[in-house]
Amino acid sequence: MINTEKKQQILENFIYVVIWLILLIVPFIDDIYKQNSSFGWLDIFHTWEGMIPFLLIFLVNNYLLMPLLFFKKKWWLYLASVVVTICLATSFSPNGFFNPHKGPEPWTRNEWKSGPPLPRDDKFKPMDTMGDKAINPLPQNIPGYKDKKEPFLGPRQKSFLRIPFVGFFMNNFIIAILIVGFNIAIKLLFQSIRDAHRLKELEKHNLETELAYLKHQINPHFFMNTLNNIHALIDIDTEKAKETVIGLSKMMRYVLYDSSQPTISLEKEVFFIQNYIELMKLRYTDKVNIKLYLPEIIPSVQIPPLLFISFLENAFKHGISYRKDSYINFSLQVNERDIECLVTNSNCDQKSQEHEQGIGLENVRKRLNLLYPDNYTLKIDSTVDEFSVLLIIPLL
């Protein structure tokens, strides 16, 4: 997660660098747009000089104000700090960001349009020698003549960067607000991406923690039943008890190590179930009919570990009677799309089984909800004579 956040931070900074590089190139494009024969480097440098206050505003907002105030929800303090920063930065701005011209505008300069000198003619007399004859005013269409004192300089050069706005300070203030707004938008976008990634990692961690908790609830129950079996065998058959201890050690290795993985091969899970059933058979007489139906060839598929053991434990605990014949059937089928597990047993202890069903099988249901949300089938049926559990899960 840390590496992902670093990559996102690098990407965010890269976007900022690209944007400011584009802004640095804009004056060149503006100069080309005006169709000058050569670059006006002085105007370009003046434009870059005008960018400095806005760059400072961006840096202060992005790396200081937003982390310390904005994301800590100190809204009013953040707003006041942004306004103060903009006012201070724009007050010292040498010229406008989008106004690269420095000095008086062309039409305010006291210059005449250059041209060839007028020819001298002796026929024309000075004005003071013409007496009372009125002199007609010059036509308005003569180049260089205007009512105003300023001469006509020809069409003014246009710039697509020029923003007509009243007031130099207000113009810069609006531009600074736009820069801060874009900065906030990009910052919030990447912050939302990081929050979504953190939430996903947190959900994954909570899922792993809850699954481990549910598995740890299963393991003590399983070991307690197995130790009770060994205790019963010690008085009946010492050699079988020794073999049972060896088998138990193998099963413990599976429970403690293999089951710690998110998934396990179906073959290992089936081998564990076979050992468990063989171990449980040692405890009961021939009156208990235990049948195991498995595929002839176990496919190479992955399943969550210890997913079926709770059904078997429940069947052995409540489906066995020492007074009458009882049975336990375990069936496992693998199709192209899913795995079906069916456990049926005689209902010898109906009241106790209903109580345990609300505790033990509820943990299984919680685990299934975490592993296969809305993508599994768990059907539990209980009659006077039989209790059955059907589980259908999709292949991983």
Question: What key phrases describe this protein's structure?
Answer:
alpha+beta, 396 residues, Heat Shock Protein 90, single chain, 5-stranded mixed β-sheet, two-stranded antiparallel sheet
Would you give an account of this structure?
This protein is of the alpha+beta class. It has 2 domains: 2-112 and 139-152 and 166-197, no CATH class; 237-394, Heat Shock Protein 90 (2-Layer Sandwich). It is built from 8 helices and 7 strands, in the order αααααβαββαββαββ. It has helices at residues 2-33, 41-70, 75-91, 168-236, 238-256, 266-281, 309-318, 350-371, and strands at 264-265, 288-293, 302-303, 326-334, 338-346, 377-382, 386-394. A 5-stranded mixed sheet has the order 2-4-5-7-6, covered by helices on one side. Strand 6 and strand 7 form a beta hairpin. Helix 1 packs antiparallel against helix 2 (41-70) and helix 7 (309-318) runs antiparallel to helix 8. The two termini are 25 Å apart. The relative contact order is 0.07. The model is unreliable at 96-114 and 148-166 (pLDDT under 50).
